[in-house]
Sequence to fold (586 residues):
Amino acid sequence: MRKTCLNSVYDLARRDDRVIFIGSDLGVSTLDEFKNNIPERFFMEGISEQHIIGMAAGLAMEGNIPYVNTISVFLTRRCFEQIVLDLCLHNLNVRLIGNGGGLVYAPLGPTHLAVEDIAILRTIPNMTILAPADAKEIARLMELTIEHDGPVYIRLAKGGDHIVTPDDQEYKIGKSIRVREGKDILIITTGVTLQISLDAARSLASKGVEAGILHIHTIKPLDTKAIIERLAEVPALITVEEGTVIGGLGSSVAEIVAEADFGQPKKFKRIGVPDTFSDNFGSQKELMEGFGITAANVAQTALELIDVKSG
Amino acid sequence: MKRIEDCEELAKIADELRIDILEMLHTAGSGHTGGSLSAIDILTALYFSKMNHKPGMENGAERDRFVLSKGHGAPALYVTLARCGYFDKSELASLRKLGSMLSGHPYSPSTPGVEVTTGSLGQGLSIANGMALGLKLDQSKSVIFCLMGDGETQEGQVWEAAMTSAHYKLDNLVAILDNNGLQIDGFVKDVMGIEPIGDKWRAFGWEVIEIDGHDMSALLGAIDKAVAVKGKPSLIWAHTVKGKGVSFMENKASYHGAAPTAKELEMAKKELNPA
Ligand SMILES: Cc1ncc(C[n+]2csc(CCOP(=O)(O)OP(=O)(O)O)c2C)c(N)n1
Fold:
């Protein structure tokens, strides 16, 4: 996914001379061609994330479109203030590409986990947040970033993910994707947990439960209209995300559900990283299992929700 | 804008702007007095003599850019912009009020002539670097001026930026240090010393030009010299006095964020405009 994303930046740069790449001490051989062919618009900075955000802001003020790439957590957690003031307040065309969104860097420990990136960035006016599910989707979304007005955060996954996003739908920033139809329960998901949701839906189908899936590649602005429309058709919902349940996708959907008037209350569970630091290292997959961000747990939770409802 | 070269005339403008600052802050009942008075000679030299700019060309590609990294010096910037004609002087009385175009710190969306929103210290030089790089890409002749406080340079991000300006040989960037020796809590040297200032910036790859920041002819000369430097960024290290021009405010940390009372305003005006 990262390779596809960075290749897209190069493609965009070849077509549009407003495009600039800024990295922070990354060994990205993927971008050698960019560096060799358009050296004047290729910047590999030192380890100075806060400064990079300001510098990207200055470049954008002069009419450029900088694509900034480094490790997600350092881009978001460390630079929150610079993102708010330098980028969002000035509503500048800067794209932040975060490597290792969620639990990707689990083996490196808690300093490297980007679990609250979505939750914190979502509070900032003018911010757009993208969390694609696979390489095909990132390629589609990257194309759209060039003409998008205002700052964008792009959360990258580990890569090598199965291609699960459908071809037959329109990809637009701010538009959700109907991945699966089902009237018993709706699973709302973002980023790579789309795969987990699909596996869960298949397992539920084998038990006679039809789960719909709504994939949210744009967490902000959120496709509130589609979420309400889909929710009107089901009695229960689950949100699944590889990030904190406080303030992330689950919270965003909860806000919509709380304010919408469905007549009948909805059964609702959020699955994601709970309110705790992880003292486990291990792999991303192992951490996800520890937090219950698995197909088995999504399916089990769905069954419990529906049972409670009918029982 | 017409460029004034006569130092006496510029010094007179600066003193009149000092009165504008004090009146504005008195009317608002709050605001940053000391650091505005220390910076106003620098702003006067830039806006009335050296910078290529004019009201109405706020987005003109050929303009020189000014970034007030020490955003709390907003009063000095506002009186300067008003006198240049970016907005009407009557606006000054609305500082910090609901519906005003003048926020307590520079806010670019609402104030004509303000390039960058600042107020969180330590961020301006990074933005100035980005602008300078952008101008180089466009092969522009414009210059970026960035004014920082001495206390402000305790922020780590300033040094990330300083390193970067030199790495990219940003000779279209001129930083100015308003070295008034004070911050909120007292003297910079007591709170967290930043000396040796010149050696630090030189070690970071900058040309350092040390002057008396209240000497108009030194300011004009330093700006010319800084703009002429090739292959590296320049720092004008301006020795200033916090509260400059009003004897009872000079060198007093207590006037960092305190507006003058009616009595103080009267006394200050007498000192600044003895006639
Ligand atoms: C990041 C940040 N921290 C703290 C402040 C609060 N603050 C405003 S002015 C100031 C002192 C600044 O000292 P200096 O840079 O020397 O400015 P001057 O003395 O010229 O007013 C402080 C701490 C701030 N505006 N931004």
Q: What stands out?
A: The radius of gyration of chain B is 17 Å. The first strand of chain B starts at residue 65 and ends at 68. The domain at 7-272 of chain B is CATH 3.40.50.970 (Rossmann fold). The beta strands of chain B are 65-68, 144-149, 173-179, 207-212, 234-239.
